[in-house]
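User: I'm putting together a small comparison set for a docking exercise, and I want a reference complex before I start. The sequence is below, and the ligand is 3,4-dihydroxyphenylalanine. Could you produce the 3D structure with the ligand included, as structure tokens?
Assistant: Of course. I'll restate your input first, then give the structure tokens for the complex.
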Amino acid sequence: MDELNNRTQTAVAAIEAAATHDALDTLRVEALGKQGWVSQLMKTLGKMTPEERQEKAPQIQGARTAIADAIDARKAALDAAELERKLATETIDLTLPAPQLPKGSVHPVSQVMDELAEIFADLGFAVNTGPEIEDDWHNFTALNMPESHPARAMHDTFYFPDHDADGRRMLLRTHTSPVQIRTMVAEGAPVRIIAPGRVYRSDSDATHTPMFHQVEGLVIDKGIHLGHLKWTLETFLKAFFEREDIVLRLRPSYFPFTEPSVEVDVGFEVVDGRRVLGGSGDAPGHAWMELLGSGVVNRRVIEFAGLDPDEWQGFAFGVGVDRLAMLKYGMDDLRAFFDGDRRWLDHYGFSPFDQPTLSAGVGAKA
Ligand code: DAH
């Protein structure tokens, strides 16, 4: 009995002196753990005579309760001390200025797409989109490129192994032109849209990446001719490059989906090693640069889209968005557009607060 009392008091004293939760836990295991001395004593009860057990059981239980209570009390005291320490040291000074958060920026491709939407909205164009996973009917056939057409081979297409429910070959669209077809099929005529988005071709060097961006333009109405196309492109490019002296040259070309087709060149000069658009390409110190493809929508394309080409005519154009960004903002390597390098974005990105608007200027400064 005395021995049990002594042992219990020693244990309680050690518990009351425990300086940390770890030390306290060691003491708990020593006494109350599976192999602890109190637990061992509890096991001896089973082998005792009933009389003996009646005497010893309350003593052993008492020791166990005393130790358990001491542990609980010490634990509460240690918790309270810990809280006190935290309250004393972890203060927040609400008068300090907020910390600088890392800033995001708008990617030049997004910026240019927003600028295009703004400029064309002012000319009465809506923005349409189509799927990046296309079928070969929308991407090729309906654009007057049948199976055997050589232009198909020139597109370096990424094909999927599967065909869709109509047996059409699936692919990653190689241009935004299929949105022309989808728009006419879904909405009929008249049409006035631009369709910006990602396109894919198996090609890669400093000026080609397997994914890049285009914007398609389509106008379908009655009596549309090349003059409308030229005026629209001129108005667009003047607004986009924010210069009145943009000069275009229309050169005969060939695209299966337009007839006639024209390649549009724009005059430029080299200033400080950079191409700056403006002036006639024939002026001294100037040259022409090929900028975009366009033309009068081929009758067959209008037919494929389910409209009557005797009633409806139109023009279309397609231009590289990344290319427009490079020309306007002076980047020289297309691959950097898609590296996700924060330093490049810090340099060429735009503030989210600089929304391009016609009234405030579409060419917000980085
Ligand atoms: N889809 C063509 C390409 O990716 C670009 C193009 C040319 C689009 C002429 C047009 C067009 O709408 O009329 O190379």
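The chain has two domains: 2-89, 108-348. The chain has a mean pLDDT of 92.
User: Thanks, that's exactly what I needed.
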